[in-house]
C-alpha cells in the first residue's frame, strides 16, 4: 500500500475529498498494525466529523492528516500479495423436493478480489452464495478453500463471513454486539476497544453505537452488520444483496469501502456479493457472473470469447424511426423497452455510436456502453 | 447520544460487565453477573421482608403466602433472563471459542438458575433462622420437661396412676396351627387361653411393642404382659429432642422419677413457674379448645390440667417453634434435591436450546412427548413390571439409540434434524442415566432376593436386609453430573460444534 496509497490520500486531500481521505487514512494506519497510529487516525476521524458538523474544517486538519500519513509511511509496510483463496469447481445444487437446480458453476477468487453475482430474482444467486459459504451441502462439484488445511465445516464457517439479505435482528446495544464479535475473534482488552472504535469510525457509525437495533434504519443495520463481520476478520466475505437497503450514496460508499478493506494489508480478503445494482457491482467487481435459471450464462472473465458485438443503451425523446435512419445500412439491432433504447451491432464500437448520435443532435438524457456488462443479458 | 442504563447497577458491576464482554464473552453472554447481582438484591429484599414477617416463632407458619410470592418473583426473573438468553442467541456464532467455553457456560447457567430458584426457599430459611434465634434447642426440651413435670406435681391428686396391662401371645401361622393340637403345660397360659383375653401378636408387632413399652412381664417364652403408663405429657413435640443433648421425658420416666411416691412440692413456686412457662410458650391468639376438644369431650385429668394452666396454647406454640426450628434439618434434603433437579432440568433445556436450532429444539420436545406416549402404550401392552423396570430399560435403550445416532454426526456431510434431535435428547438424558441404571440395579437386587426367598418357601416382598439402596442412589446422583461434565467436555461439545457447522440439505 505504501507509496501508491500515500499518493492517493494526498490526492484526495489536495482535491478537497476530505471525507474519503479520512477513511483512507484510517485504512492506511490500520495496515501499519501500530495501535498508537490507529488511535491517532481515530482521533483525526473523530475531529473531522465533529468539525464537519460545526462548519469549515480548521486549517490544521490537513497538516494533521499529512503528519499522520507521513508517520504511517515511515513504518514501511508493504502491499499484501494476493493469495489464492477459493476455487469453486462445477458447484451444483438441487433442492430436495423443489424444482430448482443450480447448474455446475466454476470460478476462483484471490484475496483482494471482488466477485459479483448478478441475475434476476429466483435464479440461483443466493443458492450459489450459500453453497460457497458452506451453508448448503453440494450435490456436485467441490469448493476448495486454499488457506485452510483439511478444514471441517466449523473452520470453513469461521473462515467465511456470510451476510444474508435479511440480517438477523440484533439484541442489546449495538456497541456491545460489536465488542462481543471482536472478543470471540480473539481481540481482548484494549485491543477490543481499539478495533471496535476503529470500525465504528471507519464506517461512520460512532454516533449510533449506543443505540439499539430498533433505533436505526435498515441501511445502518446493514452497515453495522458489515462492521460486526469485519471485526471477525474473515478471509472471505459473502454478501447477499448488501445494497438493497442502502441509498445511492451509501451504496457507493459501502462498495468502495469493501474494496479498500479487501485489499488492505491488515486482513486481505476476497469478496463475493450478489446484487441487482448491476452498474455499481460491475464498477467494483473484478469478475461478474450472470446467472439465469441456475445457469451461469456469462462471466466477465469470458468476455473476449463470448462478446462479439457492441451493445449500448440510451434514453432520448427522439422517435425510433429517426434514430434507425441515422445508422443507414449499417446492420444494427434496435430494441425499445419503453424506457430506453438498446442497440446491438458488430459493425460499430461504443464511441462510434455515440458520435453518430451526438452529430445528429439526438437529445440524449442517458447513454451507457453495456458491451461487456451483464446488463445486456437481462 | 442516547445511552442505556440498567436499573440499580452500580459502577463496579458495569465495569465487570465491560471486562467480561471484552475478555470472557462466554461468561458475559450467560449474563451470570447480572443475574447473580439482581438475585442478591431480590434475595435481600425477600430476606428483610421475611425477617420482619416472622418475628414470633410461636405463630402459625405463614410461609406459604410468602413462598408463593417469591415463586412468582423467581418465575418472573427466570422468564426475563431466559427470554434475554433466547433472543441474544450469540453462542452459536462462529469464532475462536475456547474448548472450555461450553463447560463454563453450562456452569454459569447452573449458577444462575440455582440462584433464581433458591430465592423461593428464603422465607422458609428465614423462618427457621428466626425460630433458632429466639429459642434454643435445649431450652425447648428443658421447658417441655419442666411443664410436664410441674403440672404432674401440682395435680398429683387427679392423675391416673394405674398402668395399663396388655397381655400378648407371640404367635405365627405355623404356631397357631400347632397350638390347636399341642397340650399346653403352662398353667398361666392355660388360664389365659381359656379366658381368651390375650392379644395375638406376630414377630414384628412383638419387636415394636418391646421397643415402645414402658414395662413388660414375660410369663412364658411366648406370653407377655406389656404395660403402658397413662399419659403425663401435657405439652409435647415430636422430634423436639432429636438434635439435643437433653431428651424429652416420657410418661414412664415422669412417673418413675416424680410420681412413684407422693410428692410434696412447694406449690406456690411451682404454680408461678408453670404459669410463667405457659405464658412464655403460648401461641398468640390460640385458644385452649383449638386442638383438644376434637378428640376428647370428657373432662379427664389431661383435659382438665391443660385447660386449667392454658397448656393447649403453650403446646401449640412449642409445636410451631419446633416445626420451624427443625424444618431444614428434617426436610432440607428434599429442598436441596428440589433446587438441584429444577436447576438441572432448566439448565439442560437452556443449554440445549442455545446449542441447537429453534426448530430442532422444539422437535426434540415433540419427539420426547411422542416417545413417552409410545413407551406408555408398549408398557401397557407388554406389562411394565411391578417395579417399573420396563420403563427404565426403555430409557436405557433410547439413550443408547440417541447416542449412536449422535455419533453419526462425526461422519455426516450435512446437518440433519434427526441427528440434532438425537443429540438433544442424548444430552438431556445423560445426567439422569446413572440414576436410571441405579434403579435397574436396585430392582435387580430385589428380584434376586425375591427368588431366594421363594426357594426358601416364603413369599417376601422387599429388599435384602444387608442391602441399603440409599448409597446406590446417592452415588448415582453424584455420578450424573460428573458423567455429564465429562461427556460435555469431550463429546457433546464436539458433536454440537460439528452439527451446527454442517451445511443444510
Relevant terms:
heterodimer, A: about 375 residues, alpha/beta, Rossmann fold, Alpha-Beta Plaits, six-stranded mixed beta sheet, four-stranded antiparallel beta sheet, B: about 500 residues, mainly alpha, four-stranded mixed beta sheet, 4 strands, flat
Structural summary, described in words:
The complex is a heterodimer of chains A (378) and B (505). With 378 residues, chain A is of the alpha/beta class. Chain A has three domains: 2-74, no CATH class; 84-300, Rossmann fold (3-Layer(aba) Sandwich); 307-377, Alpha-Beta Plaits (2-Layer Sandwich). Chain A contains 14 helices and 13 strands. Chain A has a six-stranded mixed β-sheet with strand order 5-6-7-3-8-9, with helices on both faces. In chain A, strands 11-12-10-13 form a four-stranded antiparallel β-sheet, covered by helices on one side. In chain A, strands 2-1-4 form a three-stranded antiparallel β-sheet, with helices on one face. In chain A, strand 1 (84-94) and strand 2 form a beta hairpin. In chain A, helix 2 packs parallel to helix 4 (60-74) and helix 3 (35-54) runs parallel beside helix 8 (189-202). The mean pLDDT of chain A is 88. By secondary structure, chain B is mainly alpha-helical. Chain B has a domain at 356-505. Helices cover 66% and strands 4% of the residues of chain B. Chain B has 20 helices and four strands. A four-stranded mixed β-sheet of chain B has the order 2-1-4-3. In chain B, helix 3 runs antiparallel to helix 4 (63-87). The longest helix of chain B has 33 residues, at 469-501. The A-B interface holds A 96, 134-138, 152-154, 156-158, 171-173, 176-177, 179-186, 188-189, 192-193, 207, 210-212, 215, 232 and B 1-4, 21-25, 28-29, 84, 87-88, 90, 93-97, 413-414, 497-498, 500-505.
